[in-house]
Amino acid sequence: MIFLKLGGSLITDKSQPEVCRQDILQRLAMEIASARAQRPEMQLLVGHGSGSFGHIVAARYGTHKGAATPEAWLGFAEVWRVANKLNRLVVDALLAAGLPVLAFPPSASALADGGEIEQLAWEPLQIALGRGLLPVVAGDVAFDRSQGSTILSTERVFAHLAHRLKPSHLLLAGVEPGVIRGFPSGTETMPVVTERDLDSGGIGAATATDVTGGMADKVRHSLGLAASVPGLTVRIFSGMIPGEVERALMGEPVGTQVVSAP
């Protein structure tokens, strides 16, 4: 079982509202199809970020911080609209590559409390995987018991599902070749990243609007998963490099490995 995330910065231009990198998305879909053709037994769950579709609108309305007024709930619906728009583009690209795709939007079944997932329907995903289908999840809005609304990053969705579906690999494809020490000013790709690196502040923030926390949040969630899911291999790497997603799916050691040991 493999969890693969296509980062929002990878499939969209996060500096411009609602701009999808269609050429990159189509190439990534073909790489996924090629890997599945070589390994037909592969069970794969694909997730993707919202990039310039969801994050910019969510920041405008503060959807990740909660909703109580009619204007805030209008914003909640608008964030859902633009996130769903990107999800449709991703699903269509995967379908065009010949993949048996089925979308599972978290907003349809998740319930959070204080920004953390309390419940999310996972058995339909398990059945889909068992039938050879390719489920797709994404960063999405969700109802929240204590604050009304929240935004669930793909990492949070993956974390909730990982304890139930038990993946062997978590692959996070972004723009950078891995975790960059001192990002964005640094240039050194770290072959391995640990909790110590996160605590030292050596991992920088996102360079564009990201209401879910950027690279540090991704590493934090990845470390938690690496520690709690036995045998899980976690890698952060670049999907901008042609063939890298396919190589990762085939088990090659790309990018930065996230290791729970200190």
List keywords for this structure.
262 residues; alpha/beta; Carbamate kinase; eight-stranded mixed beta sheet; four-stranded mixed beta sheet; 14 strands; 21% strand; globular
Task: Characterise the protein shown here.
The chain has helices at about 10, 20-40, 50-60, 70-95, 125-130, 155-165, 195-200, 215-230, 245-250; strands at about 1-5, 45-50, 100-105, 110-115, 115-120, 135-140, 140-145, 150, 170-175, 180, 190, 190-195, 235-240, 255-260. The chain is of the alpha/beta class. The protein has a single domain, classed as 3-Layer(aba) Sandwich (Carbamate kinase), CATH 3.40.1160. The chain has an eight-stranded mixed sheet, with helices on both faces. A four-stranded mixed sheet has the order 5-4-7-8. The chain has a two-stranded antiparallel sheet with strand order 10-11. It is globular, with a radius of gyration of 17 Å. The protein starts with a strand and ends with a strand. Residues about 205-210 have low confidence and may be disordered.
